[in-house]
Design goal:
With 126 residues, this protein is α+β, with helices and mostly antiparallel strands. It is built from three helices and seven strands; from the N terminus they run βααββββββα. It has two domains: 75 residues, no CATH class; 44 residues.
Length: 126
């Protein structure tokens, strides 16, 4: 990575599969919970709606890492840290100078493989 790098996320499949799996698991747990049918249907519809909104609202992000300035997330500069890092997933937290906190969750397939590795290296070594 040179003096500055900018990464743009894209829609990946891992997030879609994770949301679908968790939603199906939640609906199945409601069905076997023994709740009244009306409550099970209402809660199941709520889960499906929230899963749909989660996937529909999953926008892209721009992450800019600069060795001469503070990093930025979607145009907001601040202190960028990783709250969780695995080979498949990164949870980023940006604290802006005004105290505003932004969090994003990136799956491996939402960045190119070289960009994902470069972001991991930056988070580990600065």
């Amino acid at each position: 990575m040179g003096l500055a790098a900018e990464f743009h996320t894209r829609r990946g499949r891992i997030r879609s599969f994770a949301v679908a799996f968790i939603s199906i698991l939640a609906v199945v747990s409601l069905v076997i919970s023994g709740l009244p049918v009306a409550a099970t249907i209402l809660l199941s519809l709520t889960i499906v709606l929230m899963a749909y909104r989660s996937l529909a609202d999953a926008g892209t992000h721009a992450i800019r890492l600069d060795q001469t300035a503070s990093p930025s997330l979607d145009g907001t500069r601040g202190v960028l840290t990783a709250e969780a890092v695995t080979g498949w997933f990164i949870a980023l937290k940006l604290i802006a100078p005004d105290g505003q906190i932004r969090r994003i969750f990136l799956f491996r397939d939402e960045l190119g493989s070289d960009d994902f590795r470069a972001l991991l290296a930056y988070l580990r070594h600065g």
